[in-house]
Amino acid sequence: MKKSEKFTRRKFFPLLGSSFLIPFVASAMDTSSDSKTEDEAYEVLLKPDGSTVKVKKSVLSKAEKVNQKLSNSALLGWLKK
After folding, report:
1. Residue 42, exposed/middle/buried by CB under 10 A (0-12, 13-18, 19+)?
2. How many angstroms separate the Cα of 61 from the Cα of each of 3, 19, 24, 43, 58?
3. pTM exceeds cut of 0.70
4. Alpha carbon distance 48, 76 (integer Å)
5. Strand, coil or helix: what is 55?
């Protein structure tokens, strides 16, 4: 700025208004990082009726596996199609 230019209301209010938006921008950035950690902790599985369900990966690691090698025809029979 030049020395002859004054800091007027016309220059002050846009700066003041934009400073109020900073917390909203910061909170929007925080929520996007939280959703990534939630997606990593869950896995989508298929239920017998064909719908999907989200299950925590820690629960899956502790679960007992019934049949590891499942054929396509057995899967279709399980889905009753």
Report:
1. middle
2. 69, 47, 38, 11, 5
3. no
4. 10
5. strand
Question: Is the pLDDT confidence value at 35 over 60?
Answer: no
DSSP letters, 8-54, are -HHHHHHHHHHHHHHHHHHHHHHHHHHHHHHHHHEEEEE-TTS-EEE
Asked if residue 57 lies in contact with residue 43, where contact means CB atoms within 8 angstroms, the answer is yes
Q: Measured between alpha carbons, how far is 23 from 31 in angstroms, rounded to an integer?
A: 13
CA of residue 1 relative to chain centroid, distance:
44
Q: Tens of pLDDT along 42-78?
A: 888 888 788 899 888 888 888 887 777 888 888 788 7
